[in-house]
Design brief:
The complex is a heterodimer of chains A (472) and B (90). With 472 residues, chain A is an all-alpha fold. Helix content of chain A is 76%, strand content 2%. Chain B is elongated and about 55 Å long. In chain B, 30% of the residues are buried. Classes of the chains: A mainly alpha (472), B mainly alpha (90).
């Protein structure tokens, strides 16, 4: 637990120090992400060898204290947060002068990491609200780093994010009014012993979290906000920020929903997940702008997460929990790589439209390779992490013939993702009239953009260990 | 109708007005005030639920205090953003 606590608190310290010494901010935050990566690895090792632990913050008794829980799942998500942050920080450090990234990026990204790490570690409804609010405010401030072109998108994001937090908070207040607990494990016990009708509270919480996680049909704010942000910020938002509320949805629905509610909830998640796959994929295919395409791809990919969540609730099979979190990990790595590479190419080739990427396989081969490799995982080509996740979603579905209609939906979603990735790749291989770079592309940022894509393809080799940690 | 129900009804009305203002807009200031109304509704629910027992539930009071801090800082951030938007437009 000590390692996990340090991994969550170190970014907070780094954020404060980076605000005090703005000249050294970049190095400070970069070092803190590397150290928190080591600490998160140590925390995972501790869980695997010594088993899960919990901790009551401040030593108060249960009911007053905020409970932090370190198990395989939270340790993995903590590790994912630290890994993505260190990759993005390394990329930003390698090119932030060239890209004109504001120095405010460093303290804000460190704050984002602190908020997200404590979200994944805590199991307390009100502490989740505080971390959600911190996460939302840091994310909006990060979007604003793009300057005035991002103002409108950021304002919309802020208003919707605040409304979503209030929805969640009202739900939490009602749940506390029913049962008198904020601690999730205790609340689960209270609900199973004396169930009362808490549908309204749960639906308010669900609506708030779905808006925060940009789950279809509450995703309208995401494409504008993610596309307007600078490339490293888009990578953090798409890879990590939307996963926080998704994790909370999983925790709340798997532990706090009664048996009748679970059936309704699972249908909601199955339908919205299918629609997210189809509508998100279609919009990604139609948009003329590169970053908007990648942002819509996030909407579509979150659909797989929703499907896994719905199936887990409906069939109560732990294999879908594995599929859900494999998706979360694979998508985080693949989307980091895609956003960093697309951002790097936009910067060097000088344009926002997809047509800017004509001949990119010749002018910026490494970055284009990163997009194609990460795209392979988004489509679900074997042996990438995306494939392993989809395999664990599809395989049990064969045994449940009443849900046959999900198979064509997943097939259509896969074809749509292949179509939008290939649309970019085909343009990049059109070498007849390549768009020439504005200035010589640097190699280091391109390699750093490629790194997460290579990691997601190596996820398949670690999938045995991952599956056993996620409860096999 | 008991006092608790009466207060919960007021909170529901506040929440409804806030939602309406937030959706209808279109001025940003109106939307921010609407969000604050929704926040006030949530805090009213919490204080009402706390007052059901004697002595009143301290945990809910602590939640309201934390919620107020969060609401004030979020509102300050939103207002700063509005000021920036207006100065860009001018």
């Amino acid at each position: 637990m000590n390692f996990a606590l340090a991994a969550a608190l170190l970014p907070l310290l780094a954020a404060v120090l980076a605000l005090c010494w703005r000249r050294q901010a970049a190095w400070l935050v970069w070092l803190s992400t590397l150290f928190s990566l080591l600490l998160a690895l140590a925390a995972l090792w501790q869980v695997v060898t010594a088993g899960p632990t919990t901790m009551q913050l401040g030593g108060w008794q249960t009911g007053l204290a905020i409970r932090w829980q370190l198990n395989e799942l939270s340790a993995l998500l903590l590790l994912m947060t630290a890994l993505i942050h260190s990759l993005v920080a390394s990329y930003s450090l390698s090119q932030w002068r060239a890209a004109g990234l504001s120095a405010d990026f460093w303290p804000l990204s460190a704050l984002l990491q602190a908020a997200l790490s404590s979200l994944f570690l805590s199991v307390d409804l009100f502490n989740w609200y505080v971390t959600l609010e911190l996460l939302g405010l840091a994310a909006v401030a990060l979007v604003l780093l793009s300057g005035k072109k991002a103002l409108q998108a950021a304002m919309r994001y802020l208003l919707l994010s605040l409304a979503a937090s209030l929805c969640y908070l009202l739900g939490v207040a009602l749940l506390y009014g029913h049962y008198g607990w904020l601690d999730v494990p205790q609340l689960a016990v209270a609900i199973s012993e004396h169930p009362v009708d808490h549908r309204l509270a749960l639906w308010l919480i669900t609506a708030g979290l779905m808006l925060k996680a940009a789950l279809w049909p509450l995703h309208i704010w995401l494409p504008a906000a993610h596309a307007a942000a600078p490339a490293p910020v888009s990578a953090l938002l798409s890879a990590l920020v939307v996963k926080g509320p998704l994790f909370m949805l999983y925790m709340i629905w798997s532990q706090l929903a009664g048996p009748e509610l679970v059936v309704t909830g699972s249908w909601l998640f199955l339908l919205t997940g299918s629609m997210a796959l189809l509508a998100g994929g279609w919009s990604a295919l139609r948009t003329p702008y590169a970053k908007v395409m990648v942002a819509y791809s996030t909407v579509a990919q979150l659909g797989y997460g929703l499907l896994a969540l719905g199936l887990m609730l409906q069939l109560s099979d732990p294999v879908f929990t594995q599929a859900l979190f494999l998706f979360v990990l694979a998508h985080a790595l693949a989307k980091t790589s895609t956003f960093l590479a697309v951002g790097e190419m936009q910067l060097r080739l000088g344009g926002k439209r997809l047509s800017t990427f004509r001949g990119a396989s010749q002018t910026m081969p490494l970055a284009m390779f990163a997009v194609a490799v990460a795209g392979g995982s988004l489509i679900g080509l074997p042996p990438s992490g995306g494939f392993v996740a989809k395999w664990h979603l599809l395989l049990p579905l064969w045994q449940h013939s009443q849900l046959w209609w999900l198979l064509p939906v997943i097939l259509a979603g896969t074809l749509l993702s292949a179509a939008y990735i290939f649309r970019l790749v085909v343009l990049a291989f059109n070498r007849a009239k390549p768009v020439s770079p504005d200035f010589a592309p640097a190699l280091l940022p391109q390699w750093l953009a490629l790194l997460p894509a290579l990691l997601v393809w190596m996820l398949a080799f670690a999938s045995g260990a991952l599956l056993s940690w996620l409860g096999g | 109708m008991s006092l608790v129900h009466w207060y919960l009804l007021i909170a529901a009305a506040l929440w409804g007005i806030g939602c309406y203002g937030l959706i209808r807009g279109p001025e940003l200031l109106r939307r921010i005030i609407a969000l604050n109304l929704m926040g006030a509704a949530v805090f009213l629910v919490m204080v009402t639920l706390a007052a059901r027992t004697e002595p009143a539930d301290g945990v809910l009071h602590a939640l309201v205090l934390t919620g107020l801090v969060v609401a004030v800082s979020a509102t300050a951030f939103a207002l700063a953003l509005v000021a920036r938007t207006l100065s860009e437009q001018a």
